Each structure stands twice: as structure tokens, then as C-alpha cells.
Amino acid sequence: MTPTVAGVAAGAFLAFMSFSFGLWGFLGSLLFMAIGALLGRAAEGKLDLRSVIDAITGRRSSS
Q1: Contact present, 10 and 33 (Cβ < 8 Å)
Q2: Burial 7-17 (b: 16+ CB within 10 A, else e)
Q3: What is the SS3 assignment for 48?
Q4: If DSSP codes are grouped into helix, strand and coil, which group holds residue 35?
Q5: Average pLDDT over residues 38-50
Q6: Is the separation of the CB atoms in 19 and 11 below 8 Å?
């Protein structure tokens, strides 16, 4: 799946959630999509979750 097709699919899903469930459905689906993307990148080995958690909690800087 190309990034363009993935973007169109994500946009269609978010539009559906927005029209069906309003603002909260849109924001909820956006949050769960972001969490899924982070977990997917971590599973592929492209993201170190421990570093992300440390940066969020302020133990380390992200740079």
C-alpha cells in the first residue's frame, strides 16, 4: 500500500467518523490511529518506546 493510498484511506475513515459521531468520534478515532501507528512502528523496530516515554516524562530530552 502506497503512502497516498494509506492517506486517502485514513482521511475517508476520519471523515466517516466525523460525520457519524461528531467531533468526539473524530478525535477519538484520531487518537486511536496515532496510538496504532506508534505501536506499529515499535513492532517494526523503527521506534524505541522507552526513549519516547522518557522524553514525555522529562527524564531525557528528545534531541
Answers
A1: yes
A2: eeeeeeebeeb
A3: coil
A4: helix
A5: 86
A6: no
